[in-house]
Amino acid sequence: MSRLIVVSNRVNPPTGKGDESVGGLAMALAAALREYSGLWFGWSGKTTPEFTGQLAMQRIDGVTVATVDLEEADYDEYYNGYANKTLWPLFHYRADLTAYDRAYGEGYERVNCRFAETLRPLIEPDDMVWIHDYHLIPLARELRKLGVENRIGFFLHIPWPAHQLFTTLPGHRPLVEALFDYDLVGFQTAEFQQAFEEYVISEADGEHVGPHCLKAFGRTLHVGSYPIGMDASDFGKMMKSARAARMRDLMTAATVFRQLIVGVDRLDYSKGLEERFLGFERLLIDNPDLRREVLMLQIAPPSREGVEAYQEIRARLDALSGRINGEFSDIDWAPFRYVNKNYRRDELAGIYCASKVGLVTPLRDGMNLVCKEYVAAQNPEDPGVLVLSRFAGAARQMKEALLVNPNSPEEIAEALKQALAMDKSERIRRWRALFENVQREDVTAWRDAFVADLAGTAEKLKALAS
Ligand code: GDG
C-alpha cells in the first residue's frame, strides 16, 4: 500500500483526549490518516519575522506530523489575505466582502512555493499526496516544477461557485489551470463539480474525454464528488463518556418545562447566524404562547479574528442577541443564550442530546459537519429534529431534515414551530433515515472513495488512451 501524505494549511491534529477545539477539516483529516502510516504536512500556526523553512517533526496519536512556521507577511497576505479575504468570501457568494489586492495574490503564490520546497524532500517515489482546500490550489503546480511525478489529489472543502461569479475573480484562469496539475480534483457535491466543469468547458475550451475526465490546458484531469462525513464511530464512543452524560443532564435540568433549540458554529458570516437570530426572534414575536416554552442556545467560538468582516459580524451578533433578550426576557427568564466560547466535543455531544431542535442554517456551506454530529448524538427513542439550510452541501444527503431557506427568518421561524410541535413517531421516522446516512457516508467512506479513485487514475488514463 502506498503511503499517504496529507497536506493542509493548518496542522492541528486532535490529541485523542476529546479536549480539542478544532474545525471540521482537522477532525476529518485526523480520522482519515489514523489508519494509514501517513504523514501530515502544513503550517504550524506560528509565525517568525523571516521564513526559515525549518521542519518540525512529531508523532501525535499514530500520525507523523511535519510542520513549518510562516513569515509574518505570509500570515497577512496569504492566510488572512488571499485565502480568507479573497477566496473564502467569493466561494461563499459574498462578492461584497471579497478583497482584491495584488500583495495578497503574491503572498498566496509565495507560500505555495515555500510549502512545495519544504515538502519536496519528504516525498518518496511511491507516495500518494492528498492536498486540501482553497489555501493550496497551486501546490501541485509548484511540486511538479520541482520534479514530483507522484499521484497528487486535491479536495475542496468549500463550495465551487457558479461560473458567472467565479469569473469576477481577477486571475481566475491561472487558478483553474493550476488545478490541472493534479491527477484528481474532488468536490463536496455534484453541484460544485458541475459548476467547475461548466467553467472549464466554456472558459478554457475544455472537453469531456471520458466519464469524470476533463481535458484542458493540454492536460487531462479526473474530477469527482465525495461528500465528507463525520467520524461516526469515534463520536459514538464519545456519546458514552461521563462528560457527555454530565453535560446532557446539566442541560436537561436547566430546561425543565422548556424545549431547547441549539446551534453550534464557528463565528463566520457564511453560517447565517444573523438570519438565524432573526428567525428565532420572529418565532417569539409570532407565538407569544411559546415564549416561556423555549430556550435557544447558540455556541459560536470566534474565528479569523484578524479579518475585519469577522469583527463586524461579531459586533452585529452581540447587538442582536442583546436586543432579543432585552425585548423578551422577564425577571425570572431569558429566551436566548449566546456563548462565544469553545466547548469540548464530548460536551457538545451532551448538549446536542439534551436539545429538541438542532438549528443549522448556513447561507452557503461546502458540506457542514455540525448537522451530522447533531443527528449522531440523538437518543433513538426520543430524538430531536434537525432544521437545516438547503444551501449546505449536506442538504443533498439529509433530505429528512426540515429544509429551509436560511435567508428567510420567516421560514426559519415556521420550521422551528413545526419542529417543536412534531410528534414522536415522525421524529423517530425522520431521525432513523438521517442516522442511517450519517453512519453509511462517514469520514472513512469519504476517504476510501477519494483515495481509491486517486490510486486508480493512472489505470483510467491508460484505458482512455487504448
Ligand atoms: C469546513 C467547511 C465542511 C464548532 N464549534 C465547536 C466545535 N466545532 C466543530 C464542529 C464541527 C466543526 O467544528 C465545524 O465543521 P463544519 O463542517 O460545520 O464547518 P467548517 O469549520 O466551516 O468546515 C465545511 C468542513 O470543512 C469539512 O469538509 O463540512 O463546509 O466550511 O466538527 O463540531 N468543536 C469544539 N468546540 C466548539 O465550540 N470542540
TrEMBL record:
Q: Per UniProt, what is one Pfam family of this protein?
A: Glyco_transf_20
Hey, which family's this protein in?
Belongs to the glycosyltransferase 20 family.
Q: Look up and give the organism this protein is from.
A: Phenylobacterium deserti
Enumerate the GO terms in the molecular function aspect: alpha,alpha-trehalose-phosphate synthase (UDP-forming) activity
Q: Which InterPro entries match?
A: Glyco_trans_20
Biological process (GO) annotations?
trehalose biosynthetic process
Designated name of the protein: Trehalose-6-phosphate synthase
Extract the Gene3D superfamilies matched here. Glycogen Phosphorylase B
